[in-house]
């Protein structure tokens, strides 16, 4: 019984050590790993921009009430900002430096546009054509970035 | 006439009470990413919950004792403790997710951040658990939960090409961009959400609270075999709305507000208001059910008086445990942990803990000492055994899939 307990404690300690060590390491993927993370971030950011667009459109048609639209947009804004920050923390492989600047630029633009969408909703300006066009343009850029990898 | 009314009320509350935060979020997420290609998992889960809820309801009606009480007696304290630990921790996690869900639903109408609403929601849940009658909790919140039928109306109003939608029912029709591991992960999550353990604890303990006898077996079976599948159809409708609105736009569902957007698109403000009321009722009702389930399971294992029919002074330990878990849940949510993340974790951990819940029920339901002539027949045993195999596979696969897909992000 004591032996079993000791083995269990050792196994748990070893597993915790491995997890802790892995958790403390700086994320430094190779080029393929970074590409995959960038692709996922771009696709997710496209989803956030699409959510913002759909929410503004629905609010402009008076199909939601103001607080609902603002809450959905504020959550999309948080998510878009997190996507940029998370990828920015990843060590960029040397051969991806130029692409990384482009990808991070796109993600930053997505976060900014979703923030502007939330600000527009707070101000009751749901159908601003310039903002809608900007969201459409970004959506296309993010989707093509995610597809091209 | 009274009996027909009882059946109708039971079926309606079973439909309205079937969906909780786990079903709302997981079905919308699965629909947005995989269309209807995972609907078969929901149907599999609904049949499974019907099989085991019928067994646990029958145990309550015939033996007049609830699940944990019998599991400890029949399988011994060690197995009973494992059963208690696994099921109670998962139910506690679900309780936290449900309280967070109520706060998220209120945030949608008030704009007040959900963390600020958590103390008020927790206090309201505790007051209801302490003061409200069992039947009031079950009937009022169950009937209000019927507001989620708004999703079925919205799906019809969105006017999808039904033939095309039906053609996505096959697993082979999942979007090519999604990997099989992620598909399997969402399958596990949907199965866990449909078969979440608290449903059977609440159902069987409720049977004891309402003093079911063998005369109530017919009503109980109508609730299970009609109410639960119709409740499952609400899950399918939620997934359908997400499929029609989100899948073509590449929107992944991460918030409760997104879950309601397709209804706004289809039905406008009135429809949206109805389903937000449904969000509130479903999550508040499930918070009460999970809170009570934690208290029930602990009291039934330890053996102290429990239940809403016992005066609080006579069931002090039971009511203290309800207060304790409510404070704990509020404390966890006040750390600003995302309730949707807690929900995602709760449905997967539900799947992991399923064998600990359902194996003992199958054993007790086969015991002639408790159930006499009402013990499991051949059909119940065959279905129960098949489901135990499925549950075993799902439970074993859950953690590897969770790690491999980064909780479905991959």
TrEMBL record, chain A:
Keywords: Signal. It comes from the Bacteria. Residues 1-20 form the signal peptide. This is Uncharacterized protein. It comes from Nocardioides vastitatis.
From TrEMBL, chain B:
It comes from the Bacteria. InterPro entries: NRAMP_fam (IPR001046). Its main location: membrane. It is a multi-pass membrane protein. It holds the Pfam family Nramp. It comes from Nocardioides vastitatis. The chain crosses the membrane at residues 38-60, 81-106, 112-129, 141-159, 179-203, 224-247, 259-280, 316-335, 347-365, 385-404. This is NRAMP family divalent metal transporter. It is found in: Membrane. Keywords: Membrane, Transmembrane, Transmembrane helix, Transport.
């Amino acid at each position: 019984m004591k032996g079993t307990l000791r083995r269990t404690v050792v196994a748990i300690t070893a597993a915790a050590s491995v997890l802790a060590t892995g958790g403390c390491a700086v994320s430094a993927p190779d080029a393929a790993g970074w590409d995959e993370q960038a692709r996922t971030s771009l696709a997710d950011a496209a989803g956030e921009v699409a959510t913002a667009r759909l929410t503004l459109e629905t609010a402009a048609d008076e199909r939601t009430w103001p607080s609902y639209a603002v809450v959905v947009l504020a959550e999309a804004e948080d998510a878009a900002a997190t996507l940029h920050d998370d990828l920015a923390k990843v060590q960029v492989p040397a051969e991806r430096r130029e692409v990384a600047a482009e990808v991070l630029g796109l993600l930053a633009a997505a976060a900014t546009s979703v923030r502007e969408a939330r600000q527009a909703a707070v101000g009751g300006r749901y159908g601003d054509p310039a903002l809608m066009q900007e969201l459409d343009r970004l959506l296309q850029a993010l989707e093509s970035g995610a597809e091209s990898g | 006439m009274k009996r027909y009314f009882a059946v109708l009320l039971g079926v309606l509350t079973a439909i309205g009470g079937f969906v909780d935060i786990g079903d709302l979020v997981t079905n919308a997420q699965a629909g947005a990413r995989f269309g209807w290609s995972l609907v078969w998992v929901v149907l599999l889960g609904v049949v499974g919950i019907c099989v085991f809820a019928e067994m646990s309801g029958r145990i309550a009606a015939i033996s007049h004792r609830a699940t944990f009480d019998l599991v400890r007696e029949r399988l011994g304290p060690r197995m009973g403790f494992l059963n208690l630990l696994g099921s109670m921790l998962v139910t506690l996690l679900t309780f936290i997710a449900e309280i967070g869900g109520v706060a998220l639903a209120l945030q949608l109408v008030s704009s007040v951040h959900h963390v600020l609403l958590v103390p008020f929601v927790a206090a309201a849940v505790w007051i209801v658990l302490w003061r409200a009658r069992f039947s009031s909790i079950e009937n009022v919140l169950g009937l209000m939960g019927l507001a989620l039928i708004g999703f079925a109306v919205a799906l019809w109003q969105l006017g999808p090409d039904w033939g095309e939608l039906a053609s996505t029912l096959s697993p082979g029709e999942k979007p090519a961009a999604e990997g099989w591991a992620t598909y399997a992960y969402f399958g596990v999550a949907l199965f866990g959400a449909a078969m979440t353990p608290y449903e059977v604890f609440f159902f069987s303990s409720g049977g004891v609270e309402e003093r079911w006898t063998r005369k109530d077996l017919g009503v109980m079976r109508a609730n299970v075999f009609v109410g639960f599948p119709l409740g499952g159809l609400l899950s399918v409708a939620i997934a359908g709305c997400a499929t029609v609105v989100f899948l073509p736009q590449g929107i992944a569902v991460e918030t409760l507000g997104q879950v309601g957007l397709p209804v706004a698109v289809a039905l406008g403000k009135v429809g949206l208001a109805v389903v937000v009321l449904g969000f509130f009722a479903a999550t508040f009702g499930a918070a009460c059910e999970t809170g009570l389930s934690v208290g029930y399971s602990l009291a039934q294992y330890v053996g102290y008086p429990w239940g809403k029919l016992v005066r609080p002074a006579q069931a002090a330990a039971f009511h203290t445990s309800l207060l304790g878990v409510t404070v704990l849940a509020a404390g966890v949510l006040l750390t600003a942990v995302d309730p949707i993340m807690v929900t995602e974790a709760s449905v997967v951990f539900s799947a992991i803990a399923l064998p600990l819940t359902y194996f003992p029920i199958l054993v007790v339901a086969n015991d002639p000492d408790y159930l006499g002539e009402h013990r499991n027949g051949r059909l119940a045993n065959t279905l129960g055994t098949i489901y135990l195999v499925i549950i075993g596979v799902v439970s074993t696969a859950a953690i590897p899939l969770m790690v491999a897909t980064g909780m479905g992000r991959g």
